[in-house]
Every structure is written in structure tokens, then in C-alpha cells.
Amino acid sequence: xxxxxxxxxxxxxxxxxxxxxxxxxxxxxxxxxxxxxxxxxxxxxxxxxxxxxxxxxxxxxxxxxxxxxxxxxxxxxxxxxxxxxxxxxxxxxxxxxxxxxxxxxxxxxxxxxxx
Length: 115
Fold this sequence. Notes:
This protein has one helix spanning about 30-35; strands at about 1-5, 15, 25, 40, 45-50, 55-60, 65-70, 80, 90-95, 105-110. It is mainly beta.
């Protein structure tokens, strides 16, 4: 299925395609604060509708995930990184997708504080 996503002000907009059958909730220091529900997909599943430069990046700890956010409205619609095999991945914050019923999604809890 194809989903439309964006930050709050719309300066970052994208399409993402895949089967949304579950999300991850992480309690690491950044995910807990932003309240994201992340959907992991290959990076090629996300197509930006706005220039890449519209998003700022934040990295911390091991600097392996680029947390992308809007410098204007502050929303964190997605992050970019690599899986353990080196494949480019994207973690989409489903709270930034249109038309998604969050109450029906299976949520997997991940202990990012212990990782």
C-alpha cells in the first residue's frame, strides 16, 4: 500500500510503500522523548516529495542512525540507517502518515536503553 507522509508544516513530504502490519516503540533517550512509532523498511520504499535539504539530521551515541527532522516545525517523520547486513533502511514515524489507524497496529516494544 502507498502512504503519504509529512512533517506538520509540510516542508518535508514523502510517499512510502509497503505492508504496514506493525510498528516498534523504543524507550531509548530520543525515541521516548519524541513518542515515535517506527515502521522499518528498505530505504528505496520511501520517496521524498520535497528536497532532501528540507530536512535536518541529528545523530548521537554510535552515529549510525540519521534522525531526520523539520527545522521549521520540529517533527521527526523518519530516520535513515543500515541494517546489520549493511542494507540501507528507513524508519518511518507512522504518526506522520495520513489515514493510519494507530489503534489497530501491533506494537513491538524495544528496550533501546539496554541496547
